[in-house]
Amino acid sequence: MTKKYILYFGISLALLCSSRTMAQEEQSHIHVIVDMVQLNVAVTDNKGNYVTGLGPQDFVVTEDGIREKVATFAEGNEPTRRLEEIMAAGKTGEPAPGQAGGSTESAASGPKPDPNSLSALVAGANVFILFDTSNYMYRGFVFAQDAIADFVRSLQNADKIAFYSYSRDLSRGSQLTSDRSQVLRGVRSTVAGDDAALYNCLLLTVKDAAQYTGRKVIVVFSNGPDNSSMVPPEDVAELAQSTGTAIYMISTQEAQLEPVSTAVFERMTAATGGKAYFAKNWRDEKRAFASIRDDLAHLYSISYYPAANPNRGWRTISVKLVGENLKKYHTRTRAGYRLQPTRFSAPSATTTTSMAVPATPAPTSPAQLAP
Questions:
Q1: Is residue 247 part of a domain?
Q2: 31 forms bridges with which residues in the sheet?
Q3: What domain range is 252 assigned to?
Q4: CA distances to 143, 167, 247, 262, 343 from 137, in Å
Q5: N or C end of the chain, less CB within 10 A?
Q6: 105 and 187 co-located in one domain
Q7: Which residues contact 135 (CB under 8 A, 6 or more apart)?
């Protein structure tokens, strides 16, 4: 009888341990990626001129009011460097004056890249172009193709470019590639379609861009309002912010006549750190593309490892400048992000953080930036 009780006790204990192990394994499969937050920050004066020559000591980054420590920093086309490397190079002395309007001397020593060199303008960028081929585009179709083709040619040294088009459905004309001729073939092969499902297709484009690290940009050319999407634009904007994807939108004057679309375009681009343009003619379209190219060339890249924060929902980001002589300038970046849960079939890797544990990872390489 004693042996029988011992046997029952052993089986019960084994089942209890097995249940706890299974529960722990199930919990370990749900993670959120919060290793590093990357920001692209534009600094301009009251006239819209870019402010150059700033260093990491000139910026204060907060997340939900918690001050963050800058981990990596770069200006324009400079390679991203860790803060320790910048300090060792003597780049964190007195705050730079932050002169505006054109090229100025940076706090960093050494030659600056030629600002007129198109090949240097978006080094390190992954640019996704989304072209409206709906029935709104019939009259200006060829002019829009020309403007996009010129933009593609101007990005000679961008890491990669993808070209997508949309009407009711999304068409991936050219996947992300460094082959400009392949992208141009995708541009020239587009044909006008039917109704426009902009937000559906933009959401799919954001999801494609989210698979990549580093600077991610979506440039949308739209000629009219959305009349077929099931996805609300607010969902698209939130996902773009959470994945660190900046959205730029170029739209024609016809689209501007529709006030709802105008407001949505402006809110979406502002929330992600991009811009909205409304072109009256094909010359304005070309100028808008040139402005986007110029904007990418003057962005400051700032990243940080988030401090311990119990908030598992939306986190608000604020970037401000330090010093009386810099407070007159304006900063533009994404408004925040939401933690992105990810399921894994294996135990947690070192590059992810459990939902139940604050993020305190050791620095890795800038290539491993997560939104």
A1: yes
A2: 342, 354
A3: 118-297
A4: 10, 10, 21, 17, 41
A5: N
A6: no
A7: 167, 192, 193, 194, 195, 196
Instruction: Tell me the per-residue pLDDT of 165-185, one tens digit each, with 9 for 90 and over.
Output: 999 999 999 999 999 999 999
Instruction: Give the pLDDT of residue 224.
Output: 74
DSSP string, 320-371: EE-STTTTTSEEE---EEE--EEE-SSSPPTT-EETTS---PPP--GGG---
pLDDT of residue 1: 54
- Which structure tokens are listed for 44? 């301009």
Which among 245-259, 295-309, 334-348 has the top mean pLDDT? 295-309
Residue 266 shares a structural domain with residue 313? no
Q: Are residues 210 and 286 in the same domain?
A: yes
**pLDDT at residue 8, rounded to an integer:** 53
| Tally of structural domains, the chain | 2
Beta strand segments in the chain, E: 30-32, 37-44, 59-63, 66-68, 70-75, 81-82, 125-132, 160-166, 170-177, 215-222, 245-252, 276-279, 300-304, 314-321, 330-332, 336-338, 341-343, 353-354
**DSSP 3-state of 166:** strand
If one compares 95 and 199, the residue with the highest pLDDT of the two is: 199
pTM over 0.85: no
Q: Examine the domain organization and report whether 291 and 175 are in the same domain.
A: yes
- List, for residues 41-85, the tens digit of each pLDDT value: 999 999 999 999 999 999 999 999 999 999 999 888 777 788 888
Q: What is the pLDDT of residue 78?
A: 76
Q: What distance in Å separates the CA atoms of residue 89 and residue 146, rounded to the nearest whole number?
A: 44
Q: What are 43's two structure tokens?
A: 């600094």
Nearest to 250 by CA among 233, 215, 274: 274
Cα angle for residues 365, 367, 297 (degrees, 5° grid): 120
Count CB neighbours of 298 within 10 A: 20
The residues facing 66 across adjacent strands are: 63
Is there a single domain that holds both residue 260 and residue 181? yes
Is 9 within a domain? no
Same domain, residue pair 158 and 304: no
